[in-house]
Design brief:
The protein is of the alpha/beta class. It is 45% helix and 15% strand. It starts with 7 loop residues before the first strand and ends in a 6-residue tail after the last strand. Bound molecules: nicotinamide-adenine-dinucleotide.
């Protein structure tokens, strides 16, 4: 018996990194998992390895969202878990943040989460089974993060949208929470951890190691499952103690 038996989950940005670990944990617990990404080749491969489905989804596209969620509803009749994980991180201080980079970061990290919640909530209400939406913010969505103006702005937006939407959709049995990872070793921060820099970063943390995608997937599984049935609108930090 798995914790997510009979449930259908959609994981954005699930081709690699934290999303792939989340898809793996959800599938292990019995969910039917749809991985969605713009990295089609890697997404197909990850889905094949994990026994998941793969669909192309650019989270900035309203049309893509409609067609992915329609496809899931037509084939499975329900959507129980939306893991809004897709994101980009292009570090730059204010004066080095081009308008183009700002707009791209907002489109993926912020508008992507908004479109995902709006599309999924409609489907969840229609299916009538409630649901759990998990939005990936960051510790940069809880405190000022040096040198990432656009990223920080979008991750604070995710923190705020989570709390706001949770208040609106609780009456439908839909819960909305955010996860706030610290430094998690994935392709996203590869440039920050090469050449021994990871050990220096870890030494500055209360827990003296950097995080793994599995550290985040454990929290995602808790929030996806009924074990967290009394939690909504909350920010869950998984960062080795950096933010405090
Ligand atoms: P990653 O770069 O390995 O994974 C991000 C995934 O998102 C990739 O598969 C990528 O193709 C996908 N993606 C990017 N743009 C997309 C789009 N327009 N549509 C659909 N998919 C898209 O990085 P990760 O560390 O696994 O990041 C996952 C989430 O965690 C992100 O939201 C990130 O901001 C957040 N986060 C990461 C860290 C960290 O240290 N790695 C820390 C805090 C928060």
């Amino acid at each position: 018996m798995g914790e997510l038996d009979g449930k259908v989950a959609l994981v954005t940005g699930g081709a690699r990194g934290q999303g792939a670990a989340e898809a793996r944990f959800f599938a292990r617990e019995g969910a039917t998992v749809v991985i969605a990404d713009v990295l089609d080749e890697q997404g197909e491969q990850t889905a094949g390895e994990l026994g998941c489905e793969y669909l192309h989804l650019d989270v900035t596209s309203e049309e893509n969202w409609e067609s992915v969620v329609d496809d899931i509803m037509n084939r499975h009749g329900r959507l129980d878990i939306l893991m809004n994980n897709a994101g980009i991180f292009k570090p730059a201080q204010l004066l080095n943040t081009s308008t183009e980079m700002w707009n791209q970061t907002v489109a993926i990290n912020q508008t992507g989460v908004f479109l995902g919640m709006r599309t999924a909530v409609k489907a969840m209400i229609k299916a009538g089974n409630g649901g759990s939406i998990i939005n990936t913010s960051s510790i940069a969505g809880l405190e000022g993060g040096f040198g990432a103006t656009a990223y920080g702005a979008t991750k604070w937006a995710v923190t705020g949208m989570t709390k706001t939407v949770a208040k609106e959709v609780g009456k439908h049995g839909i819960r909305v929470n955010s996860i706030h990872p610290g430094a998690i070793v994935t392709d996203m921060i590869a440039h920050m951890v090469e050449g021994g820099k990871d050990e220096k970063m870890a030494a500055r943390q209360p827990i003296k190691r950097l995080g793994t995608p599995e550290d985040i997937a454990e929290m995602a599984l808790f929030l996806a499952s009924d074990r967290s049935s009394y939690c909504t609108g909350q920010a869950f930090t998984v960062d080795g103690g950096i933010h405090g």
